[in-house]
Amino acid sequence: MMEVAEPMKVEVPRLSDLLTRDPYLTKYEKEIRRRYGCFKKLVDQIDQAEGGMEKFSRGYETFGLHVNPDNSVTCVEWAPMAQGLFLKGDFNGWNKLSHPFKKLEYGKWEISLPANPDGSCPIKHTSRVKIGVMMSLDQISLLTPKDMMVDRLCPWASYVVQPPKTEGLAYHHHFWNPPPEERYSFKHPRPDKPISLKVYECHIGIGTDQLKVGTYKEFSRNVLPRIVKLGYNAIQVMAIMEHAYYASFGYQVTSFFAASSRYGTPEELKEMIDTAHSMGLFVLLDVVHSHASKNVLDGLNEFDGSDSCYFHGGSRGTHSLWDSRLFNYSNWEVLRFLLSNLRWYLEEYRFDGFRMCLECQPCVGQLKKVVLALIIGWEWQSLITGSNFLKKKPMMTGIWEVFATRWRIGATWKKLLHTQSHMIRLL
Known about the structure:
The protein is an alpha+beta fold. The chain has helices at about 15-20, 30-50, 55, 215-230, 265-280, 330-350, 365-375, and strands spanning about 65, 75-80, 85-90, 100-105, 110-115, 130-135, 150, 160, 170-175, 200-205, 235-240, 240, 255-260, 280-290, 320, 325, 355, 385-390, 400-405, 410-415, 420-425.
């Protein structure tokens, strides 16, 4: 655990302004300094080990399945407790052992597939793929021999689809690699930063008067014009990250990099956001990084066969009220995954900012992750971030509002109330 030897010697920018404005926090000065010191240490470590937040938050450019310029395919995964990884799918007739990954350092695995003899990509667009995870003897002690290898979805999958009822309930990863003519090209710039926000909270699936799940195209055509007419200048879109359990309203995410296929394709979501921008609307993404679905076959849970991997092991990694898993924010690769997830939606889909949901009593790790997320936005002058808190103990839920210029960080603090609040900050 990262600690600070002498907290009272830690320099916190504008701390005196905070304590003057809010004397209630004076008795917590040492704790404020300690937490800021821990945070600054983490940022320094990222700078030294990864070359800065810019590179660290681009994990999606390395991890997951990628098509190279010569149409070969490379896949990198992080599965520290796995004994072996295998790629399988429609491309190899679902052969379980024909395409093994090579083990790298730090729990990472890699595989490369050459292009087909005719120069085409070996994995076809929208074809199904899975990762076979070989488990250790300890992990399979309670399982039958046939369960030594388990199927998992790539954590970085960008398109995940509900299968036909005849094929079960678990979602399938469909490799997303459309030809150039089918890729959406953005036509409109991001709107200017508004002086103040009027936010319309919305859900694509219920944005229809019909007895069905709405679509991105229908929302663009029928709902966006009405939102503008009502005088709003921003929309907060709920339930975008893929979630197998629709009734969770998007709060039990199974595939973090996949925009929900219930409403349409990734290209159709891009078109919807571009349409919103053309109308002068900011588009905020509702982000749920405080917990994740417990699903194993189509979620992050037990990805490498262990109880932990992306989450804390044991009871610490389970949210008893929501029946979900809790991330281990102290893990380097978990931070990379979640911060890269934010940048992915900023760059791939051109969302303008986030509304972040934290659990009832968020740990310091969650808050560090939120602040690191704000640093990602230093280059987007119009990035909007918001956080939602359910608070019981103020000092358990301290938050920095970070103003980042390159890699130098200044911060002020906000007093946290005991009741629910929504805080929006324009950077």
